[in-house]
Amino acid sequence: MCKKLFVVMMVSMSMLLAFSYQPLSKDEAQDTKLDQLPIPVIANTVHPIPNVSEVSIFSEDFTGTTFPPTGWTQIQTNTGNNGLYNCYWSRFTTPDYVVRSNPASAGLWWSYNNQDEWLITPEISLTGSTTNQYYLRYWYYGFCGSSDSDHYYTKIITATGDTNILYDLSEQDRGWNRYEEPVYIDLSSYAGQTVKIVWQVEDGPADHGISYIWFIDDIEIGHPELHDMGVASLLEIKSVPLVIGETDSFEIRVYNFGTGYQSDVQVMMTANDIAVDSTTVSLSAFSYEDVSLVWTPANSGDYTLKFFTQLALDEDALNDTVFKSITVCPEYHDVPYSKDFNEDWGTFGNNPPFCGWQVIDNGTENPKKWNRNDWFKGGTVNPSREVAAVRYAPREHQDEWLISPRINCSEADSLRSS
User: Fold this and answer.
1) 3 state DSSP class of 213
2) 297-302, long-range: CB within 8 Å, 24+ apart, which pairs?
3) Fold of 56-222
4) What is residue 410's three-state secondary structure?
5) Contact of 167 with 177, CB cutoff 8 Å
6) Which end of the chain is more exposed for a tag (fewer CB within 10 A), N or C?
């Protein structure tokens, strides 16, 4: 008699479903033979923005319906849309996954036609800091490391008209950032000047448009305090789902937002406000370190995890802590057991939230990335139904696994799976 059972759903072929969806990149549009799979429901909670400082000079979250916002300008080359959405800088309230803080963000879709699109702030005076230290921080939904000769620039225009590149998504490590962490740029070399900040997309020499969408939200320019450290983001949970009695590792990014060196600052992890692990970190100004903390849960159930710094002289407590709601699963589930996939899932790469389910991507896609080629929450139109789905992808050999939790079948004389 068996003790525990796993049910595995594995695909290496297409599953043809019909949806209304606009691909996030040209690669995605060219890969698909179905029309189209939906974006999964994003269930991640947006916690308060970790403000680098309370001394904010300029901010914009695109709440107002006027676009560009008052005082802003834009340079527009493309006048079209990509089926559903504009291919030039616009205010977006839908789809909901491109908005970080309601009700809107600024962004644009990729196109097959020429794109050289600029979104430009009003003049901003970098004055008021006693240390001449200034920063720009914003959150974005976009793809890093494009190899298609297109660029996703953040630039600065000085009072003399010089335009300098501050940041380019195409020069970063390859992969999506879906508002997981912000861009943080040191503007201290422009202290005392009046400047404008630019977000510009520029396609390659063939003028065939950019290859990926790009959205920005929750922009802030300000000057930091002397003493200011915090946990910037939860980067990875090593093993998901969490199961009682099994040790798991949590990788977080600790940031020194301040202008002073900080030594041996304690970094804590709690589960439902009970301390489970800690370490210490020393950081110079405007630097970060990725550290791992561990936890072995003794009981199943819902938990709120907190990751935070404890700096005695911290001048801004608003950016100290990152929260994560998580469920610890029992060792196994009793029968009868059923699942209809109606609950919200997270972004691509997240496992289903119901305890014990697991998604594994064994496909040959290189570099490997989570997308609709892997198991995710989808839906059918007729009949209307929420389902687990995976999409046909001709560019890789698919080997995609959706694995049920452990199921206790030791008490049953016979079992049936349907």
Assistant:
1) coil
2) 297/242, 297/243, 297/244, 297/245, 297/246, 297/248, 297/271, 297/328, 298/244, 298/245, 299/244, 299/328, 300/244, 300/327, 300/328, 300/329, 300/330, 300/355, 301/327, 301/328, 302/326, 302/327, 302/328
3) Jelly Rolls (2.60.120)
4) coil
5) no
6) C
Q: Which two tokens stand for residue 223?
A: 């000057």
Write down the pLDDT at residue 49. Answer: 38
Cα–Cα distance between 78 and 200 in angstroms, integer?
13
Domain ranges of the chain: 56-222, 229-329
How far is 411 from 140, CA to CA, in rounded Å?
A: 51
CATH homologous superfamily of 229-329: Immunoglobulins (2.60.40.10)
pLDDT in tens, 222-243: 988 889 999 988 988 888 778 8
- List C-alpha distances in Å: 304 to 95, 158, 277, 307: 28, 45, 14, 10
Confidence of residue 277 (pLDDT cuts 50, 70, 90): very high
